[in-house]
Amino acid sequence: MKLPLAGLKKPFYWLIITVLCLGIFLLLLRAIRLNTKKNWLVYSLSLGLGLYTHALSLLLMISHGFYLVIREKFKFNKIIRNYLIASLAGILLLSPWIINAIFNPEASDKLTASSEFFPPFYYAFDRTIDNITSIFIDIFYVDKYAPEFNFPAIPLRRYLTPILLAIVTYAYYFLVRRTPLRSWLFVYSLTLVPFGCLVLRDFIAGGQHFIGFRYNFPSYLGMQLAVANLIGMKLFTTPVKSWQQRLGKLLLIFLLSGQIISCAVSSQAKTWWHHGEGNWNNPAIASIINQAEAPLMMSPLEPVHLISLSYSLNPEVKFQFLTNSQISKIPSEFEEIFLYANSKTLWSFSKNASYKIERVYAKSKFWLWQLKI
Questions:
Q1: Residue 1 above 70 pLDDT?
Q2: Fewer CB atoms inside 10 A, N or C side of the chain?
């Protein structure tokens, strides 16, 4: 994954650190190969730590189980038994949080909150394609997230998306044709099972988790493994100076260049797509408020929605949180009053006849309005 994700201290990104640094995948393969109590214990502890990092590690455990069942041809043997014991032990390490989730379901729902509706096919397809291509090259929307760079208006998405999808598709085809079952099945399980579980969950209960980039790290890691295998095989298992080796070098240069450029641009941008939809326009909103004299920012939203924006505001900006969408008496020392709200809470303010509101910024999930007393 790219460099900017390392700067975000969220459980989803710590999940990446757990998966990559502790090597849950490698520990599973080692436990399968040696099949000793010691190695299965280490794998169990890594699962427990992964689950403590984020509950989405459960999807990894499911993909491992799917891989083993197919690999062992649906036979219940010592490997399957040891896997079940190790997985159960890993889950038991999380038992305090499981009990808390059972008796406090509202808090659990907030942690995985998304839209209640299953997205339309065209929207889900478009978002999924964007997520896949962004793990290799991520400058398609630089004009939207970082207009300060003044990039030329080149439709890179139109030209590069088919190329990247062709590379990924061929990488999976090449994986099946040139590697043994236990190798390609592992990558396929890592890619398809977590994504399939999210699709099934959202289809049954409603939601849009499966199109969220942060929920699909295991799947995207599988894609990168498939592409890495393709490049490695082309570079090191083909005759020197053959066209296949030249193709491997060309792919390596192309993808590395795209990653370097993407990291260079996104690391210097004030905001990027992985900051969340509500935060994309924080720099523009903060610029408007910071230019005001003696500003007061009012909001009926939960304070958590203003944390990231507050870091971009001057110390002189004061906050007032509203309850029941009602505005109390405004202190006279403030000259300019702003209202930060979404469309669901805005309608109640328009009924108040003692003032009027003018829209100042409405390009984001949350809108900025100015009150005229």
A1: no
A2: C
- C-beta separation of 217 from 12 below 8 A: yes
Rounded Cα distance, 267 and 262, in Å: 8
Q: Which amino acid is at 120?
A: P
Q: Give dist(CA 345, CA 342) in Å, integer.
A: 6
**Can you tell me the distance from the alpha carbon of 64 to that of 58, in angstroms, rounded to the nearest whole number?**
10
Alpha-carbon gap, residue 300 to 342, rounded angstroms: 9
Strands of the sheet containing 295-299, edge to edge, are 318-321, 295-299, 336-341, 367-372, 356-361
| Contact call for residues 90 and 221 (beta carbons, < 8 A) | no
Would you say 371 and 355 are in contact if contact means Cβ atoms under 8 Å apart?
yes
Strand 318-321 with 356-361, pairing? unpaired
DSSP, collapsed to helix, strand or coil, labels residue 26 as helix
Global confidence as pTM: 0.79
- 298 close to 322: Cβ distance less than 8 angstroms: yes
Which residues, other chains included, contact 208 with Cβ-Cβ below 8 Å and sequence gap of 6+? 114, 115, 117, 118, 119, 124, 202
Residue 288 has pLDDT above 60, yes or no: yes
Residue 340: CB atoms within 10 A of its CB come to 22
Mean pLDDT (the chain, rounded): 81
Mean pLDDT of 279-308: 82
Q: Both tokens of residue 147?
A: 């207009």
Please tell me which residue, 78 or 362, carries the higher pLDDT value: 78
Cβ contact 328:348 at 8 Å: no
Beta bridge partners of 338: 297, 370
Distance CA 26, CA 32 (A): 10
Element (H, E) at 195: helix 181-205
Residues 6+ apart with CB under 8 A from 21: none
Please give the share of the chain, as a percent, with pLDDT higher than 90. Answer: 28
